[in-house]
Amino acid sequence: VGSALRRRWYLQLGCVLLLNLVYANLDYPKEIPASLGQIDHQCWEVSSQGLVEMKKLKVADSVVTLWDFMMFLKESPKPKHNELFNDLAQNFWDMYVDCVLSRSHGMGRRQLISPKYFVAYS
């Protein structure tokens, strides 16, 4: 009796899976959704400026010069330049993703605790 019930259950499961396959939506979007392919320009600017300030980059005084410098580092044959590029790119990406996530969740820009509060409550 147990094996007959098990076979019947497997038959029902197989039928459900087969029906799902037959009636599946084959027009599933094959391209990247627009929201994933777009750059948040405000976060890009804020993160770029934050990177310049955080790393105290003297060679980059604007977003454009920062990315010119980044491309120079990336295309350089010197391993030290590539290491610096990777470090800067990782820091930028962390700030950019944090900004995008903050904005998409309605939290606005995250603020660091003011030093006077940090000393008072640490």
Structure description:
- With 122 residues, the protein is mainly alpha-helical.
- The chain has one domain.
- Helix content is 70%, strand content 0%.
- It is built from six helices and no strands.
- It has helices at residues 2-22, 34-37, 41-55, 63-75, 79-104, 115-121.
- Helix 3 packs across helix 5 (79-104) and helix 4 (63-75) crosses helix 5.
- The longest helix has 26 residues, at 79-104.
- The protein is elongated and about 80 Å long.
- The relative contact order is 0.08.
- Residues 28-34 have low confidence and may be disordered.
Outline of the structure:
The chain is mainly α. The protein has one domain (2-121).
Query: Main beta sheet, described?
Result: none
Task: Output the radius of gyration.
Answer: 26 Å
Average pLDDT over all residues: 76
Which consecutive residue ranges, at least 5 long each, have pLDDT under 50?
A: 28-34
Q: Portion of residues in helices?
A: over 70%
Percentage beta strand = under 5%
Number of domains: 1
What is the string of SSEs from the N terminus onward?
HHHHHH
The assembly state of the depicted protein chains is single chain
- Tally the helices: 6
Structural class label: mainly alpha
* Overall geometry: elongated
Instruction: Report the span from N to C terminus.
Output: 69 Å
- Number of β-strand runs: 0
Signal peptide: 1-24
InterPro entries: FAM237A/B
Protein name: Family with sequence similarity 237 member B
Keywords: Signal
